[in-house]
Amino acid sequence: xxxxxxxxxxxxxxxxxxxxxxxxxxxxxxxxxxxxxxxxxxxxxxxxxxxxxxxxxxxxxxxxxxxxxxxxxxxxxxxxxxxxxxxxxxxxxxxxxxxxxxxxxxxxxxxxx
Amino acid sequence: xxxxxxxxxxxxxxxxxxxxxxxxxxxxxxxxxxxxxxxxxxxxxxxxxxxxxxxxxxxxxxxxxxxxxxxxxxxxxxxxxxxxxxxxxxxxxxxxxxxxxxxxxxxxxxxxxxx
Lengths: 113, 115
Prior knowledge:
The complex is a heterodimer. The N and C termini of chain A lie far apart (37 Å). Chain A is globular and about 40 Å long. Chain A is built from no helices and eleven strands. In chain A, 0% of the residues lie in helices and 53% in strands. By secondary structure, chain B is mostly beta strands. Helix content of chain B is 0%, strand content 54%. In chain B, the strands form two sheets. In chain B, strands 2, 4, 5, 9, 10 and 11 form a six-stranded mixed beta sheet that branches. In chain B, strand 7 (64-68) and strand 8 form a beta hairpin. The relative contact order of chain B is 0.33. Chain A binds chain B through residues 4, 31, 33, 35, 42-43, 45, 48, 50, 55-58, 90, 92, 94, 96, 99-107, 109, and chain B through 32, 34, 36, 41-46, 49, 51, 90, 94-95, 98-108.
């Protein structure tokens, strides 16, 4: 079974631009979560989508948004990029079982100049 | 809300020595706990998980962890370190605050293995 895939793997943007990151979950998984990883803040939860609905949201500004499609693929969007948005963005998928086991993709490394 | 604390941001061991990475949790409900490993420029790989079935959990690559409710701990161990174990390790707890599927992570422990 193929793992979680994320595209692109690397991205360089400038301040003020917007960016869209994509995540394809493991086949059959209906839950997709997004996390931001930075050296200073560590791993922080952004949001989770399940069956095309946002089910949970972390403490991030409204510039961060996401969506999920009917095939469970998910995208996250960051508008008006700031230097502090430079991070590794990780996507994780789950079959949403009670044990909450999440499988992570390789991440997208976003650099904002 | 659930949380985890990892003691020691950096741990260094000799090859062949015992690996012990510490994790303490805080949870108002019986927790589901996880250990993940991250190699440079990669995502997180699940090492093992505790889901209340057994207090001693065996994972991949020879790692295991013991759930101790009295100590609110879930420390990760490996009897004999290998150079390939050098990576960053994260303890995580399922956090159902707000509903849905969310993991709350510790700050991570960087493991260095020396010859």
